[in-house]
Structures are given as C-alpha cells and as structure tokens.
Known about the structure:
This protein is 37% helix and 9% strand. The protein has helices at 6-10, 13-22, 42-50, 64-68, 91-100; strands spanning 25-29, 35-39.
Amino acid sequence: xxxxxxxxxxxxxxxxxxxxxxxxxxxxxxxxxxxxxxxxxxxxxxxxxxxxxxxxxxxxxxxxxxxxxxxxxxxxxxxxxxxxxxxxxxxxxxxxxxxxxxxxxx
Length: 106
C-alpha cells in the first residue's frame, strides 16, 4: 500500500474501510524507506495516544545516530517543530487549556 500515491490521496476512504475490517494494524514504507505501522481503528489509535510508552515527539523516538543525521533547521523554523500536535503531555494539556480559555479581550 502506497499512502503517498495520487490514487490513495484522491480517495483514501475505501482503503481505510478495508484496513479497519481486515488489517487494523499494517506496515507501510515512507518515501525515505523508513518502515512504519499504521493503525486504522479509532479505539486502537486512541489507546496508542494514551499509552505513555509511545511519544508524539519524534526526536524522543530517535536514536543518537538518527539525531546526528537530522538536517540543520534554521532557528526561525524551530517553533514549527514544537507545535501542540507534536508534543506529549503535560505540555499539550497546558496548551489546550490556554487555547480554550475565554478571551480576556471579550
């Protein structure tokens, strides 16, 4: 399964339907040849997000060798690597609270 193909991108829903029914955890390969695992059922994904053994912060999941091979990123783009979507709790909880509180500006 090539999740980067134009055919998949144009209509991924039949593939996701089949995966949920037949192969809820499947392996695929990224363009850089990295093997990754996809979960297609809501319950599986939700349990994964709550499991502290896993991380959303990609640098925490890398070996020292992988970190050394990362390309240089200009400092101006640093904040883009640390968005609320890419961080683990408790930082994400603090961000969510800040983003959802009523505005002081009214």
